[in-house]
Amino acid sequence: MVDSRVTMDRAEEVLERIRSRTTPRAIKAHRRRVVGFFRRLKYAFFAVLGVALAGGLIGSFVTPLGIWGFFLMLVAMAIVFFGILGWPQAPEPTPQQMAKSELPLLPSQTERWLEAQRPALPAPAQRLADAIGIKLEAIGPQLAQIDPREPAAFEFRKLMAEELPELVEGYKRVPEGMRRAERNGSSPDRQLVEGLQVVDEELARLSEQIVSGDLNKLATQGRYLELKYRGEDGEAR
Q1: 235 in a structural domain
Q2: 183: DSSP letter
Q3: Whether residues 156 and 208 fall in one domain
Q4: Is residue 237 part of a domain?
Q5: Which DSSP letter does residue 87 get?
Q6: What's the domain count of the chain?
Q7: pLDDT value at residue 171
Q8: Radius of gyration of the chain, Cα coordinates, nearest whole angstrom
Q9: By C-alpha distance, which of 84, 91, 90, 78 is closest to 39?
Q10: Other CB atoms within 10 A of residue 126 CB
Q11: Separation in Å, CA 63 to CA 50, 59, 60, 66, 130
Q12: Does one domain contain both 72 and 162?
């Protein structure tokens, strides 16, 4: 007899996966793929136009193309068009590349890497991955303004390039049939969700820490300018 609880859990997971396809993160990923396709289509069109222009110039000023020359030009146009259109997109960054990347680029690279891992995650973990991705978008401009040697920058790199990949890759190494199995009061699915919650909270804390540092610098600079140009009595010099 089929366990009704297991059936309900699997039905809920299917529903969550269907909902997840319409989240802002999924829509953004789909839009990025569409934009990438049309960008390649534009490049392919201009490349074909360039081949046609080169063939026309050769036929007009160098030597007549003839039937075979015209045929070869058509073949070249087809090769260029379909070659550019089918050119593979840039591969997803690896944790090793993320660890060596410049700090301002790390949020976007981590976001792309996490998006690629999303299909292998259970539905609750997918929602947390979406939340982490949103925070990474927000923290990117902040990281571009801080010194990579600051403690917050070091903590962010370690969290994103080491601890997060270790958590996700460790989960993916567990056989799929054992990910729901309870052991010592927990399961790999639950441990993954709890770990992503910690990452999400730590990312929010680091973002607040960076913003707080910027606000302190701004207040210090404002006070310095006030003392320099107004003096202690508040009157302009």
Answers
A1: no
A2: B
A3: yes
A4: no
A5: P
A6: 2
A7: 93
A8: 27
A9: 84
A10: 23
A11: 18, 5, 7, 9, 60
A12: no
Could you tell me the residue range of the domain that residue 198 belongs to? 95-229
What is the pLDDT, as a whole number, of residue 2? 43
pLDDT at 190 exceeding the cut of 80: yes
- Of the candidates 75, 115, 78, 110, the one whose C-alpha atom is nearest the C-alpha of residue 94 is 110
What are the C-alpha distances in Å from 25 to residues 18, 96, 98, 106?
A: 14, 24, 21, 18
Query: What tokens were used for 86?
Result: 């089918």
Please give the structure tokens belonging to residue 182. Answer: 């309870």
Check: CB of residue 74 under 8 Å from CB of residue 96.
Answer: no
**Buried/exposed 192-220: b ≥16 CB within 10 Å, e otherwise:** bbebbeebbeebeebbebbeeeeeeeeee
The 10s digit of each residue's pLDDT in 125-178 is 988 988 898 888 888 888 877 778 888 888 888 999 899 999 999 999 999 888
Half-sphere exposure of 95 (CA within 13 A, CB side): 14
Q: Is residue 76 part of a domain?
A: yes
Among 33, 66, 85, which residue terminates a domain? 85
- Please tell me whether residues 101 and 63 are part of one structural domain: no
Domain end position, chosen among 85, 110, 131: 85
Q: Do 132 and 176 lie in a common domain?
A: yes
pLDDT of residue 90: 65
Q: What angle do CA 87, 88, 91 make, to 5 degrees?
A: 150
